[in-house]
Fold these 2 entries.
Entry 1:
Amino acid sequence: MPPVLELRRIIKDFPGHRAVDDVSLSFDAGGFYSLLGPSGCGKTTTLRMIGGFEQPSHGEVLLNGAVVTEQKPWQRDVSTVFQSYALFPHLTALRNVEFGLRERGISDRQSRALRALELVQLSEKRDRTPAQLSGGEKQRVALARSLVLEPKLLLLDEPLAALDPSLRKQMRAELKAMQRKTGITFLFVTHDQEEALSMSDKVAVMNHGRIEQFGTPEEVYLKPATRFVAGFLGAINWFGRAGVRPESTRLAREKPEGLPCHRAAVESSLFLGNCIHVNAALEDGARVIAEIPRQENHFREGETVWIHWDPANELRFE
Amino acid sequence: MALFFAVPLAIVCAYSFLTRGDYGGVEQPWTVENFSRLADPLYLAILWRSLWIAALSTAFCALLGFPLALFISRAGRRKNLYLQLVLLPFWTSFLVRTYAWLFILRDTGFVNTVLIRLHFIAAPLQLLYNDGAVLLGLVYNFLPFFVLPMYATLERLDPALLEAAADLGARPFAILRRVILPVSAPGFVAGAVLVFIPCLGAYLTPDLLGGGKSVMLGNLVQNQFTTARDWPFGSAASLVLMLASALLLAALMRSRIARELM
């Protein structure tokens, strides 16, 4: 079985800068994948090249083993959910969902579209126009519109970015469930590491147009390949070449024996409900965050403490 | 505002119910004869021709103007240049622009001269002094009135809509038919109104390019106030013209509002 999507040495140049720099990735069918990275890292450009809206300057895009690099969007068995949803304003939700089916000349398009709307729980809003729908509802219509075509690959461009936080969490679960239910491969672009980690089977971390690491959420979080990945996937305290996650960072009143440690002054202690974040400053001024259990909430501002950690939890980079 | 609009309107209204004086001007008695005269087949033909020519002009402006506006909206850096070119004719006067067509279309004009020299025809073609010439003149002059609102509407079209349509399987022609045209419908309405109403009341173009052969409502009104010295009749005709325009505008406004509310 060939991978559902393969990118071979993709390069995209715009006048003045290289947006995507020699990207090669391979995705197996049926998974939920993310392209994660900061703004401007090239993830959206990469997604657009997969969808056919941009052409790479070099390299190839393969779908199910076939080269599709030159193919137009309407020729590819890929569907995109746009960040702005791009619902047709002059059509109702139902007609929006029917759009692709109508283009293909499918006769039972209405029943298929109704089923797709049921899948996203919007059956009762089928005769509303986009102007009459909320952000979350629009997104679900956009999703139904793409899913009803049963593409091999579904591309989602920061689909949760415009939603408010509570809705976002709910949609994460729904998207994940939808992917499992339909079996369609999802490829998700986001700058939110929490989203990428919680939803994906594998994450491709991008920076400056390059792939820094492609691995499972555990791999990219616990065994980051580069400093960038370590720092992007979660908070991290740097001690020279070693990085330690706040949850592995410990505080002690007395200098611990035999462990690497640094003296620091407590700056503040934040109660986050389920844990405490203690912000401290090292002797050289660098700041560290230690995440400690609620029960140990006894460090006060100005106190001198010893930062230490288990060397097994260190992340070392050259 | 009210003064400059309401007062002349009131005067015209009043005149339309009076009788013509022997040497022009108006006098008593009050009558509705002017309006009943308009029902004469001669004048109905003029009304009909005006509606027909205005409608055709609007249709041609839409046919030519839409692709032009679409082209300009996609032109990237050259957009402003193209817009300036569309507006360039407005730097000369309406009269001069219309006269220019006389020089192009008349028997000894540019078109006939070229065709005769190239031996395509032996005798000059009668290109002037007919409805076709009037149509040409009107479309030429009012095309920018269609292009500009159409361009404004197309500019606001979200490019993601076009990408989404392509993504869902629509090829370029289908995208045009199923997305661009319906979404830019307000532009069509605005452009059509801005062309139809002035065309309905046109008198300079039919006068110059139509000779006496292509009489429209505007010519009728002008004629009555000058040569014929029948101000009341002219007033009645111009009220009919105003009424036709107002009704059309009202109908279009209501349908647009209705569509936007749906």
Note: The first strand of chain A starts at residue 5 and ends at 14.
Entry 2:
Amino acid sequence: MSQVQPIPRISLIWLLIAQVLVIIPHLVHLPLWIIGLWLVCAGWRVQIYRMRAGYPNGWAKALLMLLAGFGVFFSRGSLIGLDAGIVLLVAAFILKLVEMRNRRDALVLILLGFFTVVTSYLFDDSLLAAFYSLLPVCALLAALIGLQQSLFAEQPLATLRLSATMLLQALPLMLLIFVFFPRIDPLWTMPLMSGKALSGLSDSMTPGDIAELSRSDALAFRASFNGPVPPQDKLYWRALTMERFDGRRWSQATSRELASAPAWQKQGEPWRYSIVMRPTDRQWLFAMDLAQTDLPGARLLGDFSLRAPAAVDRSLLYQAESWPEAIREPEAEGKTLQRNLLLPERGDPRTRAWAAQLKTQYQQPDALVQALLQHFNREEFFYTLRPPRTGTDTVDTFLFDTRRGFCAHYAGAMTYVLRAAGIPARLVAGYQGGEVNKAGNFVSVRQFDAHAWVEYWQPGKGWQTVDPTFQVAPQRIEVGLEAALADEGSFLEGSPLSLLRYRQLTWLNELRLSWDSLNYGWQRWVLGYQSRQQLDLLKDWFGELHAERLALVLVGGGGLLLGLLALWLLKPWQGRPGPLQREYLRFERLLARQGLSRRRGEGPRDFAERAAHHLSAQAVVIRHFIKLWEAQQYAGKPVEVSHLKQALSALRKALPWRFVHAEPREQEHLK
Amino acid sequence: MSFTSWRQQRWKRWLHRRIPASSSVLLDQRRIFIIPSRTGVAFGGALALMLLAGINYQNSLAYGLTFFLLAVFVVAILHTYRNLAGLTLQAAGSAPVFVGEHAAFRMRLLSSTRGHQAITLSWPPEPAQAQDVPPQGVVECELNLLAVQRGWLRPQRLRVESQFPLGLLMAWSWVDLDQAALVYPQPLSDALPLSAGFGKDQQEEGGRARGEGADDFQGLRSFQPGDSQTRLHWKAFSRGQGLLVKDFVSLSGSEQWLDLQALDGDVEARLSLLCHWVLEFSERQQPYGLRLPGGEVAISSGVSHRDACLQALALYGLET
């Protein structure tokens, strides 16, 4: 029946608005010609509605589709893959507009719209994006309602209000399903990030890379502790180690070299915390030494880094347990040690000579390391994000000439010296510190917290961590990067608008921290609500979980919510007098105020006569009303409630105004 | 009796018990049925796709939106039901028609506190009519049904349907408003045969009236049900003046009996012929009487007499 019906105006209006709202969040990653395409199609559709243009014929449609296809191919380089798929979806969503003739086409468009909203979540699942997406959803529902409305309906806002009301009413049920609907593991894997560049650590680095990272205030991960947050200078978040050095660049050992799990012993008290990390498109996980995690498939590599089973291409939550005092590899394999002693065949002669001198001076590795640290501390070394350029022998230039650099320079140089002095050592890359959010008891670690430090090995004691940067700029470790750069003013140079630059403004900082806390909750409890978290939560609430009990809660709770809503919507306790009856009841109430009420068994006409008798001044209006009412009630004439209403309001005006009910007139009558 | 017709019988009996015929029907939970519409099924398919995206991308927001729309679908059950519940349908009469014309059944939709939107009324497969009823309001509408045979035209149950607000669900009811329209035989303009004992005079008059009739032409008046279609003034209609008929003055004062048994041929054809002459005489304001086996209408004239004759012709030989 509805297949041949034209699209009502209200529906078209909301469809156009919804389309804009659906496309807006996609604009970040869509080619710009999409906007042009939308303008052309929307303009065309409006002209069709105003009967100034026809529907496109087959050729025009084919041409449009071909153009869009070419557009996608040229801007995305292919027609397959998630990126190109989304462009194609949006293009189809727009093109469908011009060939939308009847209600069924409009329905297809609306369903496409809902699906496009879902795809926008794959790119941005923040709190803001989620709340924003309610707008297009509401507009799409309004368009759906508009399709059903008869052609008499003329108020687009009323339609929107209805759709918003329905969404609001659906909210409790939605929450119930969200919590209890069992989360299923992916049926097949879907590629998500197709080579999109993400800012973050990489598996090889020159010192400049970390300087680059310190310009970014993007979030790397958040960690919330089960107890108090450890002091700042203990927060060394390891991501990976770099064991190879080619003279300029440090890089990770091959995965084969790191395959075997190392030996270690628990010691002291562990820290327990959970981490929600942002996608990195890499496999490493962030944790403090020495960490174990509950993430299925995650493993500990030979260099004590944690590795996820697959590249982390979406937000990931995992629990971790760190043993900061653990003894790591007291007896290391020869291969490992050899790898961590390797240096380029030539280059940096001054450093090598100095290392040889140190080696003769200090027999014990510990003593040598201490001497090295003291060297950094005593000599004129500076911590700066703007180091001078170094020539070919980078380590030599840094150690003996420029003496200016940041963590990567110090850690790189120290590792070099240790290796040259015959002590196995490697560079550790990760993050250090983070901002503690007191309200939420969690730590936010951002890209500018990226850090590099050193660990060296000695027999019996295993690997030990040492941070040369601490000797040069203790504020960097104890407070944070901003404090270390206070004199230089280079903190977040590239992003003048970053709120993090204004931490000294207390109210702004409070606001920012609260927002951060809210986002973390969102990340953890909404985005992270997948199978494991769901099971944990439901176990907390209901103890042992059975499928039947879950189904019972879902169905029972849903039924209860629906029942309440039904009561509220249908109000079955309200009798349903017809419009005529209602007017008559109003009439009786009006007279009751004057002390006149209908006796039991008294007909409306008799009652009216009696009232007219008592209220002789208003007799005419009373009789007029009852005559009209009877004529319409009994004579079967077409009913015009408005006439009755007019008569009633005339009566109301004629009667004396009373604030309280008058004394019943019958009594004085009887006296 | 085939299985389908047996099933239809049962269905009708069941419906009759559940929603008995009445000239005023209030739609309530006993009388309203509701199922997902075809649109609703398509919507469900889209939701399944979205859920699949949510599962495969492990995206909580995709799950969330899917569940939100699912919840909206469930809430829409209440809204769709509510849009139909509380609506009262009343029969508001119908005017008699001739076979071959459309009988117009008037009905009234009354709302209580709530308004009702996009209510469609139809006798499937006839096209439906959509109506909006404001809160505490009354709307009149008219549904047409082709009259194919004389007698009482009783429409089948009326389908009252609403898919408002989302179109995902269809709520409907089958209502019997106990309506009936009287259908007169189709007037068949032909001469009354001489053998039937009709006077020559009258036949000539009739001939003249059907022919040019310019002498006796009195004027135009607006069309009323029962007027012969041959008298319609088409030129005026094409000028947009509405349906007018040419009015003729009475040619003769002599009285006439129209007798079914005086005619030969098929009963229906004879009834049609008599119908035509009833109209003809009535227009000429010439007194006439009607004789049918088993009863007669005494000679008289006037609109009520005409209607009595037409009703007798319409119901001749039919039970009730």
Note: The first helix of chain B runs from residue 3 to 18.
